[in-house]
């Protein structure tokens, strides 16, 4: 080997690298953009679809950033293996992994096939990444799983599972059994809405994210001796395709806490479940109010709709003199006051919900 080749190889191998999954759009794209600004190393924007990923890279290049690209379908073990080989050969190790790729069911229809595919992507992918990419993690590397408010233990209402998932010596088997228990209940038609918060809405997504946040705890325990930090976090309700554009936060707002967690957070934050405002939340507090409430989406939808149309302040005298029933008059007056004359009420309402969303 020529001396110059040797030096080149050394330079490349000593470069720090960060990998973001599912980064062609949404929160993952925002994270890549933020890392490009703040991380002193190579940032990989990865996506399952090569064309969509390269398009996203082109957007960032136009903004003056230089992310690198590689195809990565986290639910496809052969794609993860190809990426592993590429990283090993070209970089020798990994400093940061942000597991962001995810899907939501998008319908209330709770079939076995749909539940399994949501769980395979949101939770199975973490298992694939763990199996193939974790061996490349360098000492003191940081891993972040983008979970959800659906990933807090308070989403589970079944007492046996709350107890088992809260065990100090929680194992992968416990978590996999939890996932299998849910899938089995859907297959056999014995699924009970009361086993989950919010009357069991989007149960497959809740199960996948609870499993992901529980696995974070096991992974931290195992990787502790290598100084590696693993956390999971809820990014807030972010305006992306997943939420059909409804959200309190832009993708750039939403990227701040993930990037803080992998670049700056003190090493005492480990194996933790972190809220989008950087608060470390007690994941085990199953009675807490952190679980996802579908109403928060509807509230935001209503708020968005009303904030776009001009509703004049309607005087109550007009409502009464036009033979509108007193109950309807009250509702119309309230909406009119809330969303037109007194915009601050509208904002305050948003803020109240935001605190616990
Ligand atoms: N938005 C929110 O309010 C919110 C709240 C809580 C948690 N989250 C979590 O935040 C993460 C990002 O969500 P988002 O809102 O940004 O959603 P999004 O806009 O729908 O983006 C999801 C990304 O994941 C990718 N993806 C899906 N399956 C994949 C696979 N098998 N391999 C690789 N990439 C895959 C998608 O790629 P394609 O373009 O190819 O589909 C897309 O790039 C998810 O884990 C989600 O659960 C979001």
Automatic annotation (TrEMBL):
What UniProt keywords are attached to this protein's entry?
NADP, Oxidoreductase
Q: What would you give as a GO molecular function for this chain, any one?
A: carbonyl reductase (NADPH) activity
Transmembrane region positions? Answer: none
**Where is coiled-coil annotated?**
none
Q: Supply the EC number(s).
A: 1.1.1.184
Pfam families assigned to the protein according to its UniProt record, in alphabetical order: adh_short
Q: Which family does it belong to?
A: Belongs to the short-chain dehydrogenases/reductases (SDR) family.
Q: What is this protein called?
A: carbonyl reductase (NADPH)
Record organism: Diatraea saccharalis (sugarcane borer)
């Amino acid at each position: 080997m020529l001396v110059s080749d040797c030096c080149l190889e050394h330079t490349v191998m000593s470069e720090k690298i960060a990998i973001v999954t599912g980064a062609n759009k949404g929160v993952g794209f925002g994270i890549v953009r933020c890392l490009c600004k703040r991380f002193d190393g190579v940032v990989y924007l990865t996506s399952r679809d090569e064309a969509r990923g390269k398009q996203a890279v082109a957007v960032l290049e136009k903004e003056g950033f230089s992310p690198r690209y590689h195809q990565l379908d986290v639910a496809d073990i052969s794609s993860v293996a190809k990426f592993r080989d590429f990283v090993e050969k070209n970089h020798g190790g990994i400093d940061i992994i942000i597991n962001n790729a995810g899907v939501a069911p998008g319908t209330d229809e709770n079939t076995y096939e749909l539940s399994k595919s949501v769980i395979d992507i949101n939770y199975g992918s973490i298992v694939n990444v763990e199996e193939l990419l974790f061996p490349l993690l360098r000492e003191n590397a940081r891993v972040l799983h983008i979970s959800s408010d659906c990933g807090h233990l308070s989403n589970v209402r079944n007492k046996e599972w709350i107890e088992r998932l809260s065990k100090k010596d929680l194992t992968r088997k416990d978590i996999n059994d939890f996932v299998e228990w849910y899938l089995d209940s859907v297959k056999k038609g014995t699924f009970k809405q009361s086993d989950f918060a919010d009357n069991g809405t989007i149960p497959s997504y809740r199960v996948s994210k609870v499993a992901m946040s529980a696995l974070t705890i096991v992974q931290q325990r195992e990787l502790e001796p290598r100084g590696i930090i693993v956390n999971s976090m809820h990014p807030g309700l972010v305006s992306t395709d997943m939420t059909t554009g409804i959200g309190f936060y832009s993708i750039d707002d939403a990227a701040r806490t993930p990037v803080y967690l992998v670049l700056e957070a003190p090493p005492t934050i480990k194996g933790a479940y972190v809220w989008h405002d950087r608060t470390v939340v007690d994941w085990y507090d199953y009675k807490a109010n952190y679980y996802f409430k579908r109403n928060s989406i509807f509230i935001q939808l209503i708020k968005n709709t009303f904030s776009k149309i001009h509703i004049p302040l309607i005087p109550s005298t007009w409502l009464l003199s036009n033979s509108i029933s007193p109950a309807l008059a009250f509702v119309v007056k309230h909406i009119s006051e809330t969303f037109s004359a007194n915009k601050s009420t509208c904002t305050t309402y948003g803020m109240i919900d935001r605190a616990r969303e």
